[in-house]
Amino acid sequence: MSPPLAPKLIVTASPHVRSQDSTPVIMWNVVGALVPVIAAAAWFFGVSALLVIATATLGALLTERAIGRGGTVADGSAMITGLLLGLSLPAGLPLWMAFLGGAFGIGFGKLVWGGLGQNVFNPALVGRAFLQAAFPVAITTWPVPGGGFWSLKGDLFAFPFTHPSPDAITSATPLGLLKFEGKGTELMHLVFGDTGGSLGETAALVILAGGIFLAIKRYLNWRIPAGILITVALFSAVIHLIDPRRPDALFMLFSGGLMLGAVYMATDLVTSPVTNRGRWLFAVGIGLLVVVIRIWGGLPEGVMYAILFMNALVPFINRATQPRVFGTGGRVAA
Amino acid sequence: MTRTGFRHGVHPREEKGLTSGLPIRRMPFPDEIVLPLRQHAGNPAKLCVRTGDHVERGDPVGLADGWVSVPVHASAAGTVTDIGWWPHPDGSMAMSVRIAVDRYAPQVARPRRVPRWEGLSTDAVVRAVQDAGVVGLGGAAFPTHVKLAPPPGVTVHTLIINGAECEPYLTSDHRTMAEYPARVLFGIRVMMHAMRVNKCVVGVERNKPDAIAALRQALPSDLDIAILPLTVKYPQGAEKMLIQAVTGIEVPSGKLPVSVGVVVQNVGSVAAIGEVFETGLPLIERIVTVSGHGLRRPANLIVPVGTKLRDLLAFCDGVTADAAEVILGGPMMGQAQANLDAPVLKGTTGVVVLERHETRLDKVYPCIHCGRCLEACPVFLNPSLLGDFARVARWDDMAEQHLADCMLCGSCAYVCPSNIPLAQMFQAGKLALRRARAGTP
What are the pLDDT digits (tens) for A241-260? Predict the structure, then answer.
């Protein structure tokens, strides 16, 4: 009998097989699910949208490349951060600011914590919070959608540290209109997205479709968006009932960054709880905070701060919702 | 939750189709067999032969050393050529008896007295099972007779037979039930008699309809034996999962199944007991599934215990060019082999040969806290947190997070998208804690 086997044997610990999903596969699927959202942003805001998103992503990727540990660009998570940050910015934001936001989000939102998996706060939102604090005017200058694909919005190519020239046609977001001028917006405009606002937050339907795709593939946990949206709907419906001048539930659901935040940002695996009970708590907390900030806060929009605040609570939520170990309760032995 | 399953768990590709339809065949005797004295949980057997001795098939080469121990018998007639250290499938070296098999011996065991089970007391049955060297054939190789004699003051009301066979690839239990239902049921009869138990449930995963049908066909009318089809899910065959699926009871953490009045035996062990009381032959051969895409001719084989893996694979026409990993047992909990001179043991359920692309990736990503491991863990631990502790050697924190309840089933590591070897880390944690408790560095 001839020797049956080549001499080189792999010896690994059990289990010797694994499921097909890997961390890069999950991340790149999320990137894929963002493509329609980016396309919608381009549809409404033209080439400016693509420029802002690309620059923010470039900032994120270059920072990951420069200070991240080797080869981490390929895992796709910095790509997600950059795209999400870009989608949360207005179309006319000077590009150098978008780049800076991406770099800051990755650098201070992720890498200083120890890289992928270690950060407490969503890096894209850290980047956006930085921009909000640093450039409060530029980041709340909302160009109106439309006007031809190749028309540039705002002052994209402003040099750093100059005042952008505010000559473009701008408008307030539906939430801003409501808050500061007391005007409502037609629901249909909100659902289809032809309103002022950040690049990726206007097309609610496209965002929902991407979320459903990811939920079916189990790349995001449906409990988080479901919990956030249900909480916002119920809470704002109750408030609307008590005081009809307050916005109704549908307006709250489809305006501002709620969809983008609930589907793509709150569901970030790294910065959301690991237990299902924890996910519900996390989602309800975000939903409540969003409504509280929008209605009683000084800002028209509160999704970003609501998520960041709940991010900070995730370690505590995880600890409080530890699963009950098998055989420590439940049905007692007969 | 239904009464035929458990919560959580995973669904690895079954791959049982490679061998599930193949009848059990007998493998010819190899030229040499190697019998480690340590093939079971508990004390290794005490050597009772010397180099140069001639042994018949079924003669003991090692005797039981105490209560939790069983003898080891020669699986072929031949001459003891050497007694010394030999590669053991667990990766260590073990004191082993090498026997050059007689080429021209008829390989018929010495005539022996077949114990008549009907009149025997519990003690006598237990002794006969121990003398025959029967151990759990599901992989753990715990001496079977110990489970037949529960400690005083404990009543066992249900005997559960584990025919779940939830590991991918393996079909040895499946074929045993489908081809030898009468022997399985006879073994159950002996056990119920010995343990004075009136109720028995055989749990079989639903993916083995022919086994379920064969057992049902052969059911005796005078015994309360139920055949229960179970949810197809890994690790359905884990003792605690099986008990929950059958009775709905969670065995309390840290307790044995007897604490809830249940004893679980593997279906292969039951068949082995049946064989002991049919033929008088001790446990010297077993049914092994040899399978995997890296193997040329998968098969279900009756293999003499002590057959070297090299000979076994050669009998199956060898492996393909891309074969890369040889696993003793199933791919979820089995042991990868570094040396094909290691022999088949009593507890060897199967040998699986994986091709290179089927093995685990080299690259490990950081934990992204996706929580999939929490949804996979059948005993509801937090593998993600345990893994964080293991990485920095915080063994005491792991113990506090119920590491002791971990069965090392590998479900967490199976689903981990970051390819983190969680089960391996938990095994390291268990080992470190055991050493710390024993006071050895």
Answer: 998 888 888 888 888 789 99
Report yes or no: B328 at the A interface, CB cutoff 8 Å.
no
**DSSP-derived secondary structure for A15-52:** P----S--HHHHHHHHHHHHHHHHHHHHHHHTHHHHHH
Helix (H) / strand (E) element for A309: namely: helix A303-320
Number of Cβ atoms within 10 Å of the Cβ of A314: 21
Query: Residue B350 has what DSSP assignment?
Result: E
Cβ contacts of A228 within 8 Å, gap of 6 or more: A258, A261, A262, A266, A283, A284, A286, A287, A290
The complex scores an ipTM of 0.86
Which residue, chain included where needed, has tokens 């003669």? B59
pLDDT tens for each residue of A152-180: 776 677 766 665 555 556 666 777 777 66
B362 at interface of A, judged by CB pairs closer than 8 A: no
- Contact between chains at B253 and A1 (C-beta distance less than 8 A): no
- Asked whether the beta carbons of residue B313 and residue A4 sit closer than 8 angstroms, the reply is yes
B371 touches chain A (CB under 8 A): yes
**Both structure tokens of A203:** 């097309």
Torsion of CA A178, A184, A186, A189, to 10 degrees: -20
Per CB-CB distance under 8 Å, the chain B contacts of A22 are 361, 365, 417-419
Report which of B91, B94, B35 is spatially closest to residue B338, judged by C-alpha positions.
B91
C-alpha span between A5 and A257 (Å, rounded): 59
pTM for the whole structure: 0.90
